[in-house]
Design brief:
The complex is a heterodimer of chains A (331) and B (453).
Chain A (H helix, E strand, L loop, with lengths): L1 H11 L2 H13 L1 H17 L5 H12 L5 H18 L4 H17 L18 E6 L6 H14 L4 E6 L6 H12 L2 E3 L7 H14 L4 E6 L7 H17 L6 E7 L5 H13 L3 E5 L9 H9 L3 E5 L7 E3 L2 H15 L1
Chain B lengths: L5 H11 L8 H17 L4 H15 L10 H17 L14 E7 L5 H16 L3 E6 L6 H12 L3 E2 L7 H15 L3 E6 L7 H14 L3 E7 L6 H12 L3 E5 L9 H9 L3 E5 L7 E3 L2 H9 L4 H11 L2 H13 L4 H13 L3 H7 L16 H12 L3 H5 L6 H11 L3 H26 L18
Parallel strand pairs in B: 1-4, 1-5, 2-3, 2-4, 5-6, 6-7
Antiparallel strand pairs in B: 7-8
Helix pairs in contact in B: 1-2, 2-3, 2-4, 3-4, 4-11, 5-6, 7-8, 9-10, 16-18, 18-19
Classes of the chains: A alpha/beta (331), B alpha/beta (453).
């Protein structure tokens, strides 16, 4: 139990954390409820830990979009652990389940994850947003711009989605709402050229952060992925060590394809972090486990609603806490 | 790799249960385990998978295996039939109202592709059915959603009805209806804002719009990459709005699209169209059969099974197999075999259909030259009956004659003869292996070259 105590203490140490975790508990209430309810259900239904129990556990995890191979691995490890500790009672196994999930989530070592955005002090930070169509790239940029601006940073947006109808207007509208400048060309122009202009503008205005929007593209479109690599190269050439973050925006309702997205976009642009959007729906967000487990890309931001303020920094402890809050509170 | 298709998954299992006359319970158990995993990896909802696998099990056990199929393929056949039955049926028609305008309402989650699909449908209606659609911008929430629809309208030179972002969506739609009647436009496509199915206020708004305009179609637009949650989304939208059809978007990606199956299973509403790209003409009528193979990730092993059923004379195939085993395989048999294979379709397509073929060394990326086959045929046809039966007769003179007769070079003739001998040797080895207990069946031995490669 000491593990959970530690986790709990972490939250009680400072109030700010408490707030964050409340927000998470709010936004994730669906996720948390259904997930831990199911595990509780499961535990209550079975007296003994047997094959049938594991089969049903497998289903609970799969229904959370955790990903088949991750689930298989987990079940295998659980079965071994149960054997090793000679656990027969399903109540005890609950503990092991949550520990294992946290372990998958955070990796074997206790190393703290870098979930903070890599923002530069006193010089320009460039963040590139990539992802498939309709995941919420532009909305995320709008929210992040709002957040950064309220922290007193000078932010500029670049409308690199020159393809989709209305995309430039959409970013422009966000710029108006947040009160930041938007660098844009007309529809159909070269995205790399827009981004280049954005960089020049950010340099000359001595902005703190440049947020670069790109058009959504499916990861199997080779030409479009090459276009994205070119955009990144332009940024690299103009500002050494930039882009400081390449954020892959993922829709939480996406299933197994999210892994393929993460892989392919990483190859094209060295994704440094993930923004998980639309987590306020009924989607379980289990895909995060699979991505962390298989690709090691950290989740940095989470979209928990449609309001301008509904973008949260990703805090793995809070996330895990939200996921297992019911279980923790019972003890 | 997480995205193994069912074909690859089944390879091993199929190998194990090859050559039995009947599908046993144990076979089916092993097979359905793989089917289950494949479906889950394709994002089919686990409950749907469960029911499905149960059905397949019941049907498959005890089935007689068709002569041209292995028990493994037999099970796949059952799987395919069940899948297609589950997916398919209804033709993709768009309703036509008795009294114009016909009203279509587009609903769905954020980012599913409603606006783009609205544009595509309008384009399709005009091009294919010669209709005059009106696009209605009822998404007043997302920034620039109206601009997006207006831009699409401009690209298509089609009228777009909008009242800005301050208007109430219900009013917008009512006014749009009046406008359509005035202008004699016969279709009204309503683009609504994306919303979560658990957002009661926004769902109520849709219900209100629906009650007001009484649409002939309510299309639920779903991202084909959706995971297990597809069931919840489809269920709630259907419960509250009684959806009339589904449009699956972003199918040009590499997702398996298991969501399609989940949605069909829980709503029993037809999937009518599929979005296949970002351009406005990239919308297709939905093909349940294609989707079934795609979900299973089997290349087209299914069509191969069908083709094998149709084209290969079963008795002849058996005889050939017997000859291969006894190594009395002659050039005549070879010619016969080639023509049977050719009947099934272009060779490279055929190779794609064979599960595991892409894993074989040497077979990958081989360009099959259909001409090459014609050449081989010509060479064989230039042989005398005796030569075909007994290639050992070949001497330099005969080779020269054959080369002349077929219009190929002597070296080509030589190569074919050599390859044929090697092939025979390999066949002998393979048969020996099959007779031995732990032989690696089905694996192509190293160095085996088909003469037409």
């Amino acid at each position: 139990m000491s593990f959970f105590k530690k986790l709990k203490e972490k939250f009680q140490t400072n109030e700010e954390n408490e707030e964050v975790s409340d927000k998470y508990k709010d936004g994730l209430s669906k996720t948390r409820k259904s997930f831990s309810e199911k595990i509780n259900d499961l535990v209550a239904r079975y007296r003994t830990v047997d094959e049938e129990f594991f089969e049903d556990l497998e289903e609970v995890l799969i229904s959370a979009d955790v990903g088949v191979s991750t689930v298989m691995e987990l079940i295998e490890e659980l079965e071994m652990e149960v054997k090793r500790q000679n656990i027969k009672d399903t109540k005890e196994v609950k503990q092991v389940i949550s520990e294992k999930l946290v372990e998958i989530y955070q990796g074997d070592d206790d190393q703290e994850d870098h979930t903070d955005l890599n923002l530069q002090e006193n010089e320009l930070t460039i963040i590139l947003f990539v992802g498939v169509n309709g995941v919420g790239k532009t909305t995320t940029i709008g929210k992040l711009a709002h957040q950064l601006k309220s922290e007193g940073k000078e932010v500029i947006l670049t409308a690199g989605d020159t393809f989709r109808a209305g995309a430039i207007e959409q970013l422009n509208e966000w710029g108006k709402r947040v009160g930041v400048d938007v660098i844009k060309h007309s529809e159909g122009s070269d995205p790399a050229a827009v981004i280049y202009d954005g960089i020049q503008a950010a340099k000359s205005r001595q902005a703190d952060v440049l947020l670069c929007d790109t058009a959504g593209r499916l990861q199997n479109k080779v030409n479009l992925m090459n276009e994205l690599s070119k955009v990144k190269r332009v940024i690299e050439r103009e500002v050494p060590n930039a882009p400081h973050e390449v954020l892959l925006v993922l829709d939480a309702t996406t299933g197994q394809n999210a892994l393929s997205q993460a892989k392919t976009f990483s190859q094209a642009t060295d994704v440094s972090g993930i923004v998980l959007t639309k987590l306020d729906g009924t989607a379980k967000g289990g895909i995060v486990l699979a991505i962390r487990n298989e690709l090691g890309i950290p989740v940095k931001l989470v979209g928990l609603g449609e309001k301008m303020t509904d973008l949260q920094e990703f805090d793995p402890h809070a996330f895990v806490y939200g996921l297992f809050a019911d279980m923790l509170e019972e003890e | 790799m997480a995205f193994e298709g069912l074909a690859d998954r089944l390879q091993n299992t199929i190998q194990k249960i090859k050559g039995k006359g009947k599908v046993t319970e144990q076979d089916v158990k092993e097979m359905t385990r793989e089917v289950r995993l494949a479906l889950l990896e394709a994002d089919v909802n686990f409950k749907v998978v469960k029911d499905f696998v149960k059905k397949v099990k019941e049907r498959a056990i005890g089935q007689e295996v068709m002569e041209s199929l292995t028990p493994g393929q037999q099970v796949i056949k059952v799987v395919k039939e069940e899948l297609t039955a589950l997916m398919g049926g209804d033709e993709s028609k768009i309703a036509v109202a008795d009294k114009p305008p016909t009203v279509i309402m587009m609903v769905g989650l954020q980012g599913a592709g409603k606006t783009t699909t609205t544009g595509k449908l309008a384009n399709l209606l005009r091009k294919k059915y010669n209709r005059k659609p009106l696009l209605v911008a009822a998404d007043v929430y997302r920034p620039a959603a109206i601009d997006q629809l207006e831009t699409l309208g401009k690209q298509l030179s089609m009228p777009v009805y909008s009242e800005g972002t301050d208007a109430n969506p219900v009013d917008i739609v009512n006014n749009a209806m009046a406008h359509a009647k005035e202008e004699h436009l016969d279709y009204v496509l309503i683009d609504t804002a994306g919303r979560l199915h658990i957002d009661n206020d926004l769902m109520d708004e849709l219900v209100q719009i629906k009650q007001n305009v009484n649409p002939d179609e309510v299309f639920l637009v779903v991202d084909s990459m959706t995971g297990q949650d597809a069931v919840n989304v489809a269920e709630s939208f259907n419960e509250q709005l009684e959806v009339s059809g589904v449009v699956l978007t972003k199918l040009d990606g590499d997702t398996r699209g298991g969501a399609a199956l989940s949605i069909k299973a829980v709503t029993d509403k037809p999937i009518k169209f599929a979005g296949m790209g970002e351009k406005l003409d990239q919308i297709e009528v939905f093909h349940p059969e294609r989707m079934a193979s795609r979900i299973l990730g089997m290349g087209d092993v299914l069509s191969l099974i069908e083709k094998a059923q149709d084209n290969v004379d079963e008795k002849r195939a058996k005889e050939l197999e017997e000859k291969m085993r006894s190594a009395t395989f002659t050039f005549d048999d070879f010619l016969e075999q080639m023509s049977q294979v050719k009947n099934m379709g272009p060779l490279d397509e055929l190779m794609d259909m064979i599960p595991g073929a892409n894993k074989m060394k040497g077979l990958k990326n081989v360009d099959f030259d259909e001409k090459q086959i014609a050449h081989v045929e010509a060479i064989i046809q230039s042989m005398t009956a005796k030569e075909r039966q007994d290639p050992s007769l070949m001497n330099a003179g005969r080779r020269k004659r054959i080369a002349k007769g077929s219009g190929r070079s002597v070296s080509e003739v030589n190569r074919l003869l050599k390859q044929f001998e090697e092939m025979k040797k390999m066949m002998k080895q393979m048969t020996n292996m099959q007779q031995g207990k732990k032989g690696k069946k089905g694996k192509k031995p190293k160095g085996l070259n088909f003469p037409f490669m």
